[in-house]
Design a protein that fits this description.
The protein is of the alpha+beta class. It has a single domain, classed as Nucleoside Triphosphate Pyrophosphohydrolase (Alpha-Beta Complex), CATH 3.90.79. Helices cover 19% and strands 41% of the residues. It has three helices and eight strands, in the order E-E-E-E-H-E-E-E-H-H-E. Strands 1, 2, 3, 4, 5, 6, 7 and 8 form an eight-stranded mixed sheet that branches. Strand 1 and strand 2 (18-26) form a beta hairpin. The radius of gyration is 16 Å and the shape is globular. It starts with 5 loop residues before the first strand and ends in a 13-residue tail after the last strand.
């Protein structure tokens, strides 16, 4: 068996000191997460995060920075995740857009409200990413290079 981490993207979106989170059905009950999801074939990371935010929240997302690249595993019996965490702004909310399966609601919460819900966070990366963002951690999107279908001899 070949080991490989799950590559995911996540978006930290802040407005007026409130962060956009999704409430989603998981095997552990309803949990809170940033709009996030798996990277798909033939997609670059920026396209992936834009798609995931739209599918999970009905907001159009424009990434502005990379906050961090996070490697996480709950314990050796769980899968490993490589998560690219972006920040940016959202616009053009579409109230008619059905949300992804399992997403039951979206919420704009302050950091304090998120801390109060810590037991419901999908992973520790939710709060870690918010704190990295609040501490001013920002890297340019130009760090990402995509070479899909590059003809090289």
């Amino acid at each position: 068996m070949v080991w490989k981490p799950h590559v995911t993207v996540a978006a930290i979106i802040e407005r007026g000191q409130r962060f956009l989170l999704v409430e989603e059905e998981t095997p552990h009950g309803l949990q809170l997460n940033q709009p996030a999801g798996h990277f798909e074939e033939n997609e670059d990371l920026i396209a992936a995060v834009k798609r995931e935010v739209y599918e999970e929240s009905a907001w159009q997302f424009e990434p502005e920075h990379i906050i961090s690249i996070q490697l996480w595993r709950r314990n050796p019996d769980y899968p490993t995740f490589l998560r690219v965490c972006f920040s940016g702004d959202c616009h053009s909310y579409n109230p008619n857009q059905p949300l992804d399966d399992g997403i039951v609601a979206t919420h704009w919460l302050t950091r304090d409200e998120i801390v109060q819900q810590r037991a419901r966070l999908r992973s520790p990366l939710v709060l870690i990413g918010i704190d990295e963002y609040l501490n001013g951690q920002r890297y340019p999107l130009s760090l990402l290079k995509s070479f899909l279908d590059l003809d090289y001899e």
